[in-house]
Every structure is written in structure tokens, then in C-alpha cells.
Amino acid sequence: MLNWMLLKCDEGLCDECCEQHGAVQSSRNHSVISVTEYQKLPVKILEITQTCQKHKEQHQTFCKKHDCPCCRRCVIETHNECKDLKAIDDIVKNIKSSNAFLEVEQMLVQMLETVQRIRNDRTENLKCLQDQRVKIARDINQTRKMINDHLDKTQENIMKELYANEENESKKIKQLLSEIEDIERGISDLQVNQNNIRQHASELQTFLALRHIEKEVSDKEECIQSVLKSEDMEIKTLSLVVNKEVQNICRTVSFESVVVESNSCKVVISENKRQQAQIMVPISTPKCIDDIKLSTKMQINLQSAELLRDCKILPNGKMMFCDYKNKNIIAFNSNGTLEFKIALDTTACDIA
Q: Which residue windows are coiled coil (predicted)?
């Protein structure tokens, strides 16, 4: 029964083989973990193999140009002309303590803290709305005692407006809280995955999975930014606007009204200096001018022209040539055929 995983070779071992593997000097330092711990890694990490799927050989080199690991045969067959090849052992060395890996961890912590602040802020706003609704309802009842039955219908309408506004704004906040909880769960899952990767993944698995993790972290960060910028993050409050003429009941047309006021959100997210991370990305090598090769696209018969001084190619593909000695402007179609000539009274050096 396979109880152990050999990370470097990506192979399972039974208890007896594990003891024998550790007894051999050449493999004594190979990292071995239990299958139970290994299965805690994210599925996408487990799908990363330590060997080349095409040639069934160990990855030995990483090609920065194509952003992929290579075995010995891959280098010979596909990457023979690639110049930026690095040894896998050098690339993945100390990857779990690299700036890129540590920054992802820090970003997860910061984002989780931000989401928790957002959740607390929205929860407080929800409680505030409820308290304000209770207070305003009490104020309405106190005001109602000062007037007669003529205001019964008006009070009913204003109470409906009050509850409708409170319910509408509360619904928006609850919906936003639901989204925030989803984001929070996603970040927590990423943290669990990050910890499992740190503890159980091989250096190569960690290196190859880092970009995907960074992408997911970036997506979560964008979700948080989107939440902070949404109108639903504005602080909603309920207030009662009392008609100053309410005491003059005979002339009163309206009672009070409930308005929703919006104030700026108190939660501020700090910008991450992602450019400081040591993230390895493919580097495109600019072409040298010496490597540019010219090829003939078209030949144009200009034997009749003498001493050409200027040439212009028009947006429609037509070509204009300035024949200095013969005092002509010669026009050719885009296919290279002569269209017309214009005789000039004097010599011309340029075409404007």
C-alpha cells in the first residue's frame, strides 16, 4: 500500500520502499511526505508533474522564452535555439522564501483584513439603519400624538416609505455582505492552499503554481476594489424631514418624509507594490537590425525616369515619384502599373 510520496520523483512508496529509499545515500535527502498530507494540496497543484509528459524524463531546465519546464530531450528537439535557459534547480531554489511567494501571502492577509473591515462596516451600517428606523418610528408616533385622525392616512404612507427605504437599503447591504462572504471564503481557501503548498508541495510545483495563485489573488483584489467602488459601499442613513407647518393641521398637505443619505465609505484599501515582487516572466528579446532580412515585394519600371529626387506612397497604395531631370511627376497604381505623368514647367525636388 502506497503511504508515502516522493516529491522529487513524484512517485508513491510503501513503508518498506520508503525505508530503503532513505537508506540509499543518493536519495537520502529526498523529501518524502505521507499520502494524506500530499492529498491536501490543491487539485491544480497535484496535476503538475515533475516529469515531461512527452518524453517521460525529469524536468532539468526552464525556458524563460516559452515559460515552460523542459527535460533533456525537450531542449534538444524544441528549445535548441532558445538562449534564456536556466537550470530548474537554480530557478526553484528558495522559491518559498522569494519575494513573489511572500508577497502573495502578505496580499492574502491584507485582502482578508480588508474584507473583514468591509463586512464589519456593512454590519454596523445595517445595525445603524435598524436603530435609526426604530428611532424615526418613535419620532413619528410622538408627532402623531400632536395631531388628530386627519393624519392617520398620512402616517400610514410615511411609515410605508420608511420601511420600504429601510428594507431596500438593507437588502442591498445584505446582498453585498453575501458577495463579501464569498470573497472572504475564496481568500481563506487561497490561504489554506498557500499554507499547504508551503508545507507539502515540491519546489517545482510551487514555482509553476505561483503564477496561477497570483492570478487568483489579483482577481480577488479586483473584486475587493470593485466592491469598494460600488455605490452599495456608500454609508446609508435614514433621517426624518419634518414639515415645519405640521402643527397647522388644516393647511398641512404632507407629513414627514424619509430620505436616504449617502456618505463616503470609511474602509480604505492600501495599494500593493506588486512591482517589487520577483516574479519571473518571459522576457522578449528585441530583434537586432542586423537580423532583419529584406525581400522584394514588387518591381516598378522607372527606366524612362532620370534622377529621381522623391517618392510618396499615398494611403490608397498609389506611388508618386519626382523625376527631377525630365521635369515630371510619375504616378503608379498599387499594383505597379503606370497611371499617369504630369509635366512640370520647372524641375522639382520634392513632393509635398
A: 159-193
